[in-house]
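Can't attach files on this board, so I'm pasting raw text. These are the components:
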Amino acid sequence: MSVSQPYVSVRGMSFSRGDRLIYNNMDVDFPRGKVTAIMGPSGTGKTTLLRLIGGQLLPDSGTIMVDGHNVPTLPRKELFDLRRKKMGMLFQTGALFTDLNVFDNVAFPLRVHTDLPESMIRDLVLMKLEAVGLRGARNLSPAELSGGMARRVALARSIAMDPEIIMYDEPFTGLDPISMGMIVKLIRGLNEALGLTSLLVSHDVEESCAIADYLCLLSDGRVIGFGTPEELINEGNDEVRQFLRGEPDGPVPFHYPADDYRSDILAGVN
Amino acid sequence: MLGKLLDQLQAVGRSGTAAIEAIGRGTLLLKNSLFWGGPGSAGFYDLLKQIYSVGVRSLIIIVVAGFFVGMVLGLQGYNILIDFGSEAALGTMVSLTLLRELGPVVTALLFAGRAGSALTAEIGLMKATEQLSAMEMMGVDPFKRVITPRLWAGIISMPILALLFSTVGIWGGAFVAVDMLGIDDGAYWGNMQASVEFYEDVVKGIIKSVAFGVVVTWIAVYQGYDSVPTSEGIGKATTQTVVISSLAVLGLDFVLTAVMLGGV
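---
Top answer:
Structure tokens for the assembled complex are below.
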């Protein structure tokens, strides 16, 4: 497969939850070996998109190709194989196993999926923990970790099996500036060191622009802008620019749709 | 008026379909998790760990409850039987009551409250904190990894706990009858030995408690897995586990007893 081919390719994908259409016939490509930030207002289904790519949700129609495999139609066993060999996901809360300590959390996928001797697992785990700067925290339990540390441990765990793609679900939410800086550095660094394809769901414009090669802006179930941060900031349409600049009013109105203000107020008088 | 009536009818229908859907999801969960093997399947060590947490850690409540239930049976039985001059049959009465009925049933009810609710809360919290999702994304099937060993731990633990309950209960009965009320030692144990049959009483009690083990653990893991992943949802699921599995145990007990006695 050539390098230029996108790692994830979504075609004609529709997804609805209950009566609400979240994605309507969406097409989008995520390039191989790059960091792409998926951005958009809250409730547009950014995290849903990651879950669709990971096969945890099934679209109503359309294809989601991950490195040549159509995820929605994969049999259960092959889907698990694909996740094991190629995918890593970092959840917002870290999702560490609370009954295991830091070391065992990172060792978990290795112990489950490989027959490596314990001495080699130890080396691998320490290497992964060193990469996120937490080799010294190996004996702590998840309850003893700060939010930022938990996320770094989770990151070490998600790279334990050397995936080809990592999906980050809101990695910056609720972190102090130092922890945020560490996560930003790690995402960029890992992407380059391991040649990963990274997808990043976020609404932190500044951090995302700092590390992403491409931005993908979603709104109302479709892609409203895709390109490098500079392109979008300078050349995006009004809605894209409103989002990236954080303007309170614009194509996305400040006011929730309502009747005429004047007649609404006067209606109470009568 | 008519509209309100229709609304109520619809609500009845909705709760009916919701219940049937829940049974369907529960059956699927059982199908996916009953057998070992699959992506990232749990091993023997995980089973031992779960037997420890659902079985071994229920020991104290089972043993203490069994002892008290046995003592009460001894006391009540003595006061009933003494009127007929047949207090020598007390050992028989206590042991048959425990082995056939109270052992399996009370153990299952206590198990639902002690271990079932804990299983539901644990799995519900794993879901709420995305641990189950994280497992899936690591290529580990949460059914095989999380549910299967817990389900089997419950199925294995329940009959052992029920037997322990009955055993301790019989001792409790003996403690009251022989040591406190002065019934003849030989009469208590001898009549028991003469009348309790291994297959008719002990094995049938074990069969009951295996069935209760399946039902209680199944309901507990299902409620956890299917819970709404919020603190309110997990609280509700935990309550549901205790309520539904208690009722299921009592209902199933009648059915099993009827089938085993063949009298209905």
